[in-house]
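QA checklist item 7 of 12: single-chain prediction sanity check.
[x] sequence parsed
[x] length recorded as 343
[x] structure emitted
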Amino acid sequence: MSFENLTPREKSILKALINHYINTAEPVGSSTISQRYFKELSSATIRNTMQDLEELGLLEQPHTSAGRVPTDKGYRLYVDSLLKQRELSPKEKENIRQQLNLDYAAAEEILAQTSKVLGQVSQELGLTIAPSFEQGVLTRVELIPVAEKRLMVVLAIKSGLVRTVLLEVQSSLQENLLEETRQVLNEKLCGLSLGEIRNTVAQRLRQVNAGDPKLIRLFLESSREILHSPPEDQLHIGGTQNVLRQPEFQNPQKLQEFIQLIEEKKLLSELLSTHGIKEGITITIGTESEKGEMNSFSVVTSTYQAGKVKGTIGVIGPTRMPYSKLISIVDYTAKALGEILSE
């Protein structure tokens, strides 16, 4: 449906109906539109226009006696052509920045806090996903014994991210050889991206004469596990209690669908990772995601920059969400987060 093909009256009534529905969560009847927004138009005239919009696939009637609600197609036209973005006030911006700019030691803590802030400010489900480790530049490797035959490998990334992996070793660890091995790994691998290391690690460590040969062999054999971080491991979720207060979740089926969605971390991380391919704000409404679990929900995301790598943040909630406000919240939070991580 092309926006240009709608008459001015159809555009105005569609916008008024969607705004009203977003605010009330109740199907909207022609009398409500007439009394509140277009007193110069009769209820019958508005009813006919709403019927035309329904035939165009922009509205639907959930029950025979009820008013109309927007379809995904209606929301899409609204977001693309009718929406006026609501700018955040200086106070709202300061509130977001203050909650983000706390004294955290690791980037993961900042990302976890960001998801909570998004959830609290938006009253939707806040999500953050860490930048792809593939592009992250390694700055330090640490080898830390945590038990007689267990070793923690710590990879520090330039953007402030840290990856840790526990490895089982066959024999007791000797402190001097452990330190030599740590020095070798730092010398050979630091300054490279994890993607470069994964592709060339065998060649780079092939003719190493220092360190513990068994440890270096274990590092090579475990390199895929050490250097690859599944997206769902980097996902942070916040604001579950906030979003569950939405009227939609009074319906047990909707509530069950949402709980299943939250539990599907792999699905959520794939969704955010896909959005992260695009720059700036991305909005996906209901069935547009082509994932059945998302049919009743919308997601608003934005990329953020941490040094030379990028991650994604966003919010998920019912398709009846205040898009005009959420776009500003997600956009500003992404920019603030990028600045904090790049300091």
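[x] summary fact logged: The first strand starts at residue 59 and ends at 60.
[ ] second reviewer sign-off
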